[in-house]
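Predict the 3D structure for this chain.
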Amino acid sequence: MRLMCDRMLNGLARWLRAAGYDTALAGASEAAPDLSSRCLTEDRVLVTRSRRLAQAMRPQVRTVLLIDDGLEAQALAVSGELALDWTRAPFTRCVVDNALLGEAADADLERLPERSRTLPGPFRVCPACGRVYWPGSHVRRMSARLQRWRDLGERTIDLAHGRRAASASRNPDWRGS
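Done. Predicted structure below.
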């Protein structure tokens, strides 16, 4: 599943990328008709906080309108709407630019703090921005959060039986993969 978040959801987009989802961010000055075309062309689901933007999308664009402000509530709402698995492919995408990460070379590891280089790995690098990723304590904390969202999301789906209280969605008959 490929996603498109509006600029108000930059934090959520980073977490979706951390979970392994291909998540683009709408351009700051991207007009609704252009964004609608882009979602159709790139086969992306729009996730937005803007009612106006959601209403401006073509009917063929799957749109998830998030009502809640907090990251946790937004993560659970989008999880419920799209049946996301937050532990699907963690730490395989750059959280900054969405590129798929590759294996880090020895030269990439030289840029890490010496103590981090002794960790067992895996070490990954973004081919677009050059950012190096390593399994420090932040990865354990992030993994725990992704697992918690997965567990809570599964319970939310089970309890709601298809009804979502924290979000509103168009095209309810759409089934994503």
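Residues 2-169 form one domain.
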